[in-house]
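Researcher: I'd like a structural prediction for the single chain below. Treat it as a standalone chain; there are no partners to consider.
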Amino acid sequence: PDVAGKFVNPPDVNLEINQVRWFYREPDKYWQPFCGCDSVRLEQSYRVYGDYNTGERVRIPVMGDMYEVYLFTRVLKPIYWDEVYGKQTVVMRAWWFEIISDNWYPFD
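Model: Treating it as a single chain, here is the predicted structure.
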């Protein structure tokens, strides 16, 4: 559906930007949250572009502008150096969480 010219993902229509969090995970590791400002920046971009295949044009700088999130493919890549051993760091958008050892993790 389209609301005011923006793509809206139906399950989270009523959520505020700060109620959605973005996480990244390297292979065989736990999900790690992006800092608050990066998470908000990612969510704002997601609400503009949605899940449309925009190719690699939509890259959002995060982590002090040292990495980029490729919004459509949900991959985190370093800007200034090659990926270590070709491993990809996946990215997740989440609004449901579980608590493990006093830490919040997204359901995956």
